[in-house]
């Protein structure tokens, strides 16, 4: 499963957010692809379309799709030189597919700030510098190897050496790799380095209950994210933490009191899901209505493979109905009668929300 790592300076609210995200007790047997590790949380992806499908199919159960979040604590200034818990944590970030960068945008004198005053831009810079330094080390080693290989090598070795020299220069200025303008070929070449600052980033602004509007700290973070073409999601982690512990009925009341339709966490989860380049397709039957995750661009056999590798190997065809058609036409039968249920082959690329049924040989 793809996972997002949660980073940020100490005391900005990472653990509070992680605990809120993972408070939902979800039956692990539904998610055999997910990791069992205390720092890794398996989090259901909220999706109102599941209920709409269930209203038509009346299944025995509804199973949302899930994604993984990792709490990466211990990142402080000097981590790249082994300060704090240093390198171990950098290694954890390397294994993630995207980064959620939590920044503190609330003032509370009872919560100590590791660097003195509250200043989200400085905080973000401290973390970015550490991550860029860690990547710089990686890039220097890769460059030295590549330069040797280029002496005796061909075109590809020379292209690689040139790229890695450019990477070293870029990172040496403390700039994240994602901010650079690289060709697709060069991105491919960099992939094997697992560079941390090449991963997509979502900023999570941890604000106070009243800090969603007229909050200059949040505004400065938004301006920074805009420059980078990144997104900001504002949440109040403390409030989300309290809410996550409530029973469903109490949660609904709590939200209504705040004038909200859903927990702020849902926005974080969905934004992280998009950041990872993921999309959802559905299966719908009397046993279960279920959401499954594939990468954007996945083919029908790859989608079948998410359910079971046998489905991918023996793939024959997929019956596909767009979500809007399925719901609008009252389900599979209606879609079929209206000619909206399609038979698709191996080359078909899955669309967001497709309702699918696979035919396969075993
Ligand atoms: P971490 O070190 O980044 O994991 O930070 P924690 O999640 O442990 O939070 C640090 C402190 O900030 C704890 O005392 C939290 O209760 C508090 N905190 C977290 N989120 C909020 C928030 O939204 N508002 C306020 N006022 N305090 C918060």
From TrEMBL:
Q: Which residues form the OBG-type G domain?
A: 2-255
Query: Per its UniProt record, what Pfam families does this chain match?
Result: MMR_HSR1 (PF01926), YchF-GTPase_C (PF06071)
The protein, known as:
Ribosome-binding ATPase YchF
InterPro entries assigned: ATPase_YchF/OLA1, Beta-grasp_dom_sf, G_OBG, GTP-bd, P-loop_NTPase, TGS, TGS-like, TGS-like_dom_sf
Q: Which residues bind ATP?
A: 11-16
Family, per the entry?
Belongs to the TRAFAC class OBG-HflX-like GTPase superfamily. OBG GTPase family. YchF/OLA1 subfamily.
Q: Which CDD domains match?
A: TGS_YchF_OLA1, YchF
The UniProt keywords, alphabetically, are:
ATP-binding, Magnesium, Metal-binding, Nucleotide-binding
Names of required cofactors:
Mg(2+)
Q: In this protein, which residues make up the domain named TGS?
A: 277-360
Q: Which NCBIfam families match?
A: redox-regulated ATPase YchF
General function of this protein? ATPase that binds to both the 70S ribosome and the 50S ribosomal subunit in a nucleotide-independent manner.
């Amino acid at each position: 499963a793809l996972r997002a790592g949660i980073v940020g300076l100490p005391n900005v609210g990472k653990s509070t957010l992680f605990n809120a995200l993972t408070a939902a007790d979800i039956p692990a047997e539904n998610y055999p692809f997910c990791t069992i590790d205390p720092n890794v949380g398996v989090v259901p992806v909220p999706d109102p379309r599941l209920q709409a499908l269930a209203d038509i199919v009346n299944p025995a159960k509804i199973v949302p799709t899930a994604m993984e979040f990792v709490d990466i604590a211990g990142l402080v200034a000097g981590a790249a030189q082994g300060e704090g818990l240093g390198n171990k944590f950098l290694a954890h970030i390397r294994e993630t597919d995207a980064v959620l960068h939590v920044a503190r945008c609330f003032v509370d004198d009872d919560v100590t700030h590791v660097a003195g005053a509250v200043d989200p831009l400085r905080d973000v810079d401290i973390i970015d510098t550490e991550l860029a330094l860690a990547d710089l080390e990686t890039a220097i080693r890769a460059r030295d190897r590549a330069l040797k290989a280029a002496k005796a090598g061909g075109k590809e070795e020379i292209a690689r050496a040139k790229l890695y020299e450019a990477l070293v220069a870029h990172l040496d200025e403390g700039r994240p790799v994602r901010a650079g303008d690289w060709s697709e070929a060069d991105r491919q070449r960099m992939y094997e380095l697992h560079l941390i600052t090449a991963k997509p980033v979502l900023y999570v602004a941890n604000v106070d209950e009243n800090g969603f509007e007229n909050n200059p700290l949040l505004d400065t973070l938004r301006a920074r994210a805009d420059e980078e073409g990144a997104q900001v999601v504002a949440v109040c982690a403390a409030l989300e933490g309290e809410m996550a512990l409530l029973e469903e009925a109490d949660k609904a009341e709590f939200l209504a009191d705040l004038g909200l339709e859903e927990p702020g966490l849902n926005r974080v989860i969905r934004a992280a899901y998009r950041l990872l380049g993921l999309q959802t397709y559905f299966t719908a039957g009397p046993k279960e209505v279920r959401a499954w995750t594939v990468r954007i661009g996945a083919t029908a056999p790859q989608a079948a493979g998410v359910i079971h590798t046998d489905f991918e190997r023996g793939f024959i065809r997929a019956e596909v109905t767009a979500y809007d058609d399925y719901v609008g036409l009252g389900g599979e039968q209606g879609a079929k009668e209206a000619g909206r249920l399609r038979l698709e082959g191996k080359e078909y690329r899955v669309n967001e929300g497709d309702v699918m049924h696979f035919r396969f040989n075993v």
